[in-house]
Specification:
The chain has helices at about 5-15, 40-45, 105, and strands spanning about 30-35, 35, 50-60, 65, 75, 80, 90, 100, 110-120, 120-130, 135-145, 150-155, 160-165, 170-175, 185-190, 210-215. It has two domains: about 5-45 and about 110-215, Immunoglobulin-like (Sandwich), CATH 2.60.40; about 50-105, no CATH class. By secondary structure, the protein is mainly beta. It is globular, with a radius of gyration of 17 Å. Strand 4 and strand 5 (about 75) form a beta hairpin.
Length: about 220
Amino acid sequence: MPLISRRAVLGASALAAGAAMLPEAHAAAPLRLRFKLHAWFFSHEAHISPPVDPQVFEVDPHAPAAVGPQGIRHVAGFRPALFFGPHDVGVYNALGTPLGFTLAEWFAAFGLVSIARAGAGSRVACRFRHLRPNGVYSLFENHFDQKPVGFTPLDGTGTRNNFIADANGQAAIVVETPAPTTHENAVLLVYHSDNRSHGMERGEPGVTAHHQLIARLPA
C-alpha cells in the first residue's frame, strides 16, 4: 500500500527554494513560502506521534466514538486519518460520510504563496495544484496569538477569500488582508466538502470544513 515518502514529507515541510528571507525584508520584497500539509503542521506543533490528520477520517471498525485531537467529535467506526498509514483508503468526515476521494489524493495537495505589504495590510497571492477538481475552498487566517487559536477570513469580510478549483484541481487567487501578516498568523486553506463557502465562518470543522494546507510566516 502506498505511503508518503520521507522526501515528500520533508519537501512539504520546507520553505520553497530561495524563499528564506529576513522578516525585515517583508516590506521591500515579497516573502515566498511553500504550503505545508495541515496534518503534518498540526501534529508537529501539538507533538502528536504518530502524526494524524484531525480534519479527515478513515475506517477503523474498533474505534469508539470519541473527540479527536482538535476537539472534533467523530462517530464510532472511524478515526482521524493516519499520516503514515496506508493512503489507498477512502476518506470520510467526522459523521462517517464518504468524501469521495482517497487519502493519497488528499495529501497530494500543493501550494505556493507570495506575501507582500500592501497599504495597511498584505497582498497574499496563492497558487495551488492537486486540489479537489471543482472543489470549493476558502482562505482563512490563523491567529496564534489568541487562545484558543482564532480564525478569520483572510480578506476580513468572507467575500473575496473563496474560490473553486478548476477541473484539473488547480487554482490561483490574490487576497488583500486588512492588517499585515506576521509570525502570529498563518494562511490556511480550507476545503468545503458541502460545496459551499460559509462567509465569516469556516463551516463545521471535520464535517463540512477541512483544513488541508497551511503556511505560517517565519519568526
